[in-house]
Write a structure and sequence with these properties.
The chain is an alpha+beta fold and 458 residues long. It contains 14 helices and 15 strands. 41% of the residues lie in helices and 17% in strands. α3 packs antiparallel against α4. The longest helix is centred in the N-terminal third of the chain and has 34 residues. The protein is globular and about 70 Å long. It starts with 15 loop residues before the first strand and ends in a 5-residue tail after the last strand. It comes from Methanolacinia petrolearia (strain DSM 11571 / OCM 486 / SEBR 4847) (Methanoplanus petrolearius). Belongs to the [NiFe]/[NiFeSe] hydrogenase large subunit family. One of its GO terms (molecular function) is ferredoxin hydrogenase activity.
């Protein structure tokens, strides 16, 4: 058995590995994206008071805690029969905008950009955020400032910069102070300037995107608000492999369409449509579904994006471009929300009197894709069943098949060069997987790529 290990595969969040099995001639027999840690939140949530779910579930992840926080709160809204008032809803929406700005700026500038600005064939020591700082220090500095803005917004509205706690059944626990609004507004304007400048860099990816790289044909799933990009409200839409509408759902209706399953090479769950079709979620899916972003500069960027990829595309690396367009749109939305003094209104929560329904489902669009929190409770509001479907599980099939597609193209003579290994990593990075959302590990979190030669049969 021949084994090649990359430890760690850089610039993803979490612990996973790629295993490539070779035939007797040294060619790829098969390859898989493997996650070998066990997830536990669905089990130890059972028995907790459901109103604690928005406080507990952000601990699933330090990168996208806001998405879990708000999905859990939306599920609680249903269980307690308490729809948030207009200002409370706006604050939740702005909190999601901050989540996207923080997460998307981190991924694009720090994780994906080195491959495009420095080069995917560059030495690993140079192909990193430190290499980016050396090559483009002004861009790197501004990217850090934008990410800081996303965190400050989470802190101001969510109570804490990492694990927000203010979303509660029926709305949010306190209004936004006027002084904070003005402070965040100034930061939002600077962040939008950075996003505008960054588009001139992001658009160069259009010329560097191999349309067949990590190829996989799937359906797509994502939320839209009457055809407009939305992370908080609207129906979840499903389109087929050709872009044609398949279905739309909200709440508990997801069980009529989605089924979860497992494979023996990974602890990370898979999701597919009932009937067997596979699908993907996230920025690529959302831009395949929406008609517009709803903000002028992002809509102009979307037009340019579609002039290259079309109205609908299966191109995996287009995830990077789609992610940037969402980032640009959220920077615009932040300025829009924070320019309105009414967002500091005091009517932020609908009072809660007791359990109204024994089941609640909260759905949002996390930066990485559709996120579903499903809780069943007893009459006193204690959780009896919990199901969480995260984006990385829904993209698991796409990553797995994309890895094999690239492996077949880059493995030569039974060996894997550093450059070739990075090309495999680029497929995984395009999805921006959040392994912590799907599984939980203790200690270091590397991703290993193993090359295994099959033993000859006797």
């Amino acid at each position: 058995m021949k084994e090649i290990t990359i430890n760690p595969v850089t610039r993803i969040e979490g612990h996973a590995r790629v295993k490539i099995n070779l035939d007797d001639s040294g060619n790829v027999d098969n390859a898989h994206f493997e996650v070998v840690e066990l997830r536990g939140f669905e089990k130890f949530m059972i028995g907790a008071a459901v109103e604690e779910a928005p406080r507990i579930t952000p601990r699933i992840c330090g990168i996208c805690p806001t998405a879990h926080h708000i999905a859990a709160a939306k599920a609680c809204d249903e269980i307690f029969g308490a729809a948030p008032p207009a200002t409370g809803k706006k604050l939740r929406e702005l909190l999601m905008v901050g989540q996207f700005i923080h997460s998307h700026s981190l991924h694009f500038f720090m994780l994906a950009a080195p491959d495009f600005l420095i080069g995917h064939d560059a030495p690993a020591a140079e192909r990193s955020v430190l290499g980016l700082v050396k090559k483009a220090p002004d861009i790197a500095k501004k990217a850090i400032e934008v990410r800081k803005f996303g965190q400050r917004m989470t802190e101001a509205i969510g109570g804490k910069p990492i694990h927000p706690s203010t979303c509660i059944p029926g709305g949010v626990s306190h209004p936004l102070a006027e002084s904070k609004r003005l402070e965040l507004l100034e930061m939002s304007k600077k962040s939008l300037e950075t996003a505008r400048e960054g588009w001139s860099i992001a658009r160069t990816i259009l010329d560097q995107t191999d349309l067949s790289f990590g190829a996989v044909d799937t359906a797509f799933m994502g939320m839209s608000d009457n055809g407009r990009f939305s992370a908080y409200k609207g129906e979840v839409n499903v389109v087929g492999k050709d872009g044609s509408p398949v279905s739309a759902f909200s709440g508990a209706d997801y069980l009529n369409l989605i089924e979860e399953y497992s494979e023996d090479w990974s602890y990370l769950k898979f999701s597919r449509l009932k009937g067997g079709d596979y699908y993907r979620v996230g920025p690529l899916a959302r831009l395949n579904i929406v008609k517009e972003m709803g903000t002028p500069e992002a809509d102009a960027a979307l037009t340019e994006y579609r002039s290259t990829f079309g109205e609908f595309t299966q191109t995996t690396l287009a995830y990077n471009m789609a992610r940037y367009i969402e980032f640009l749109s959220c920077c615009e939305k932040a300025v829009e929300y924070l320019s309105d003094p009414s967002i500091c209104g005091g009517d932020v929560r609908t009072p809660v009197s007791g359990v109204s329904k024994l089941r609640g489902v909260g759905i949002v669009e996390a930066p990485r894709g559709t996120l579903i929190h499903d809780y069943s409770v007893d009459e006193e509001g204690f959780i009896t069943d919990c199901n969480l479907i995260v984006a990385t599980c829904q993209n698991n099939f796409g990553m797995d098949r994309g890895v094999e597609d690239v492996a077949r193209k880059v493995v030569s003579g039974g060996s894997l060069s550093e450059s070739a290994a990075n090309r495999i990593e680029m497929v995984i990075r395009a999805y921006d997987p959040c392994i912590s959302c799907a599984t939980h590990a203790i200690g270091q979190m590397p991703v290993d790529i193993e090359l295994v030669r099959r033993k000859p049969e006797r």
